[in-house]
Design a protein that fits this description.
Largest sheet: none
Order of helices and strands: HHH
Strand content: under 5%
Number of helices: 3
Oligomer: single chain
Distance between the termini: 46 Å
Structural class: mainly alpha
Length: 74
Amino acid sequence: MFQAIDYRTAKRPLETSDVVMLRAVLRNYCAARQLDRDSSAALAGARELIRLFQDGVSDGECLRELLDVAFPRN
C-alpha cells in the first residue's frame, strides 16, 4: 500500500557540492588502496561512504578516516 513520506524527518538530498566531495573521497580511497573503481571493494566503500554521509557525517576528511576504520588495510 502507499506510504506517505514525512519530509520533515527525511534525509536531505545530495547537493552538487556533496557529490563532488563524495566522489573525491571515494577516488582517493580507491587510489590509496589501488582499487579498480568497478571492484566489489570499491562498491562496498561507496556504500559505506553514502551511509556515513546520510547519518550526518559531512566532512570529507572525517569520512575518509571512517572508511579506513570500516575497511582497514591489510
